[in-house]
Amino acid sequence: MAKVVTYEELKAHSTKDSLYVLIHGEVYDVTKFIDEHPGGDDVILAEAGKDATQAFEDVGHSDEARDLLPPLLVGAFEKDGALKISDTKTPGSGASVSDAVEQGSSLMYFIPLTLLGAYFAWRFYGA
To answer: What global pTM score does this model have?
Structure first.
């Protein structure tokens, strides 16, 4: 039977010496990983004691980063506790990629066209 982590327990493990992180309704002990985190320890510590799902997904972690999570699993977060967990899309659902493309669609066209225009201006006026 999987362990159920309470909000009080999550808050109690919110220091660099003992750090639990809540992602997608599951609690992970990232204490040993914190010094190896590419974004630095401050990024993880800022999400201590609360639902870090949105912050985790906003960064766009790689599959390799996601593969590091299962061995760090402590247990599931309590369903009806003081902290309400967000209803963020689960990893691997194509919806998050689709949302990112929709939000960045203007830049996906603007930046390449700007670079192309700069190249042609350079070739025309500079050469």
So the answer is: 0.63
Instruction: Specify the DSSP class assigned to residue 71.
Output: G
Instruction: Kindly state the helix (H) or strand (E) to which residue 5 belongs, with its residue range.
Output: strand 4-5
Closest C-alpha to 46, from 57, 56, 36: 56
Total length of the chain: 127
25-82 pLDDT, tens digit each: 899 999 898 888 888 888 888 888 888 888 888 888 888 888 989 999 998 888 776 6
Structure tokens at 42: 């401050």
Indicate if the pLDDT at residue 7 is higher than 60.
yes
Which of 55, 76, 62 has the alpha carbon at shortest distance from 2?
A: 76
**DSSP string covering 26-48:** EEEE-TTTGGG-TT-HHHHHTTT
**Tokens 């992970």 sit at which residue?**
28
**Which is nearest to 47 in space by CA: 55, 36, 39?**
55
Radius of gyration of the chain (CA): 20
d(CA 3, CA 61): 26
